[in-house]
Amino acid sequence: MLNLISTPIGNLDDISLRAIDVIKSSDYIYAEDTRSFKNILRSIKCEKSCKSFHEHNEDIVLNEIVDHVINKKNVVLACEAGTPAISDPGFKLIRKFVELKLDYTLIPGPSSVINALVLSGLPTDQFSFYGFVPRKKNIQNKSFERIAIDVKTSIFFESNKRLKTTIENLSNYIEKNRKISVCREMTKLHEQVVTDTCTNVLKEIEKGDLPLKGEIVLVIEGSTNITYEINIDKKIKNEFLSKMSISDAARLISLLTKENKRDIYKILNKP
User: What pLDDT is attached to residue 155?
Assistant: First the structure.
């Protein structure tokens, strides 16, 4: 049996009793970061050893784990923090187990995505998780263009070094009154959650009241601006979109009409 273990995202006391039992009774343990997982093993007084399983060796170690389970061994897989396969290694392995019809299960527990969503105070009924904010500016821009018209709450991981520039860029796409939430160092001693507009969050950063340190999750409120006051003839719309992307068409029409590019993008993207 393969046991996917959810591990603490900061506070080691958050590991579940079931996870402890499964770890202690396992035959083999694989972890994304063996050094950090050894801290968990010490905290639960378990002297077992663990092997590495990460994106650089996943394809090789995957077959090793499959062989163990075929031979009736109990295997544990844990990511560095949170739940395996959620922006962490594990997806390929799970897909392989599905394909081979092998036994596997998930020991549920901490998730920084759900933790941040709840702490943000933003709507939780519909949300999308996108992993890390794209580093390349053109890809990031396209991502923010989609979010600008998305009514669902959006969740990203982001580096503390890039957070300020990311929020500055995001502010060019979403409504001025739309809230974002920066959740940092969750479950740790210096946990901090700041939920406000992009402008006000940037002020907190500038004042030093929101330190750019530690692990960060960025939560973005969904759009509430769903009215469209600008009228674009359907034939003109189709003509533009037959020759260029929505983003380029919105940019060009904005230059010609002096209307807001974001509002035009919403219209062009509307079925």
Answer: 98
pLDDT tens profile 170-186: 999 999 999 999 999 99
List phi, psi (to 5°) of 230: -90, 130
Please report, for the chain, the start and end positions of each structural domain, with discontinuous segments joined by +.
2-110, 135-220, 234-269
Percent of the chain with pLDDT over 90: 76
Report the half-sphere exposure of 170 (CA within 13 A, side-chain side): 28
Quote the DSSP letter at residue 88.
Answer: S
Architecture of the domain spanning 135-220: 2-Layer Sandwich (3.30)
In angstroms, the CA 253 to CA 232 distance is 10
Strands (DSSP E) found in the chain: 2-5, 28-31, 51-52, 75-78, 104-107, 127-132, 153-158, 179-184, 192-197, 216-220
Residue 186 half-sphere exposure, CB side, CA atoms within 13 Å? 26
Q: In this structure, what token pair is assigned to residue 46?
A: 């378990």
CATH homologous superfamily of 2-110 equals Tetrapyrrole methylase, N-terminal domain (3.40.1010.10)
Using the 8-state DSSP alphabet, how is residue 213 labeled? Answer: -
pLDDT-derived band at 226 (thresholds 50, 70, 90) equals low
Amino acid at 114: I
pLDDT at residue 228, as a whole number: 45
φ/ψ of residue 135, rounded to 5:
-75, -40
pLDDT, tens digit (0-9, with 9 covering 90-100), for 53-105: 998 998 899 999 999 999 999 999 999 899 998 888 899 999 999 999 999 99
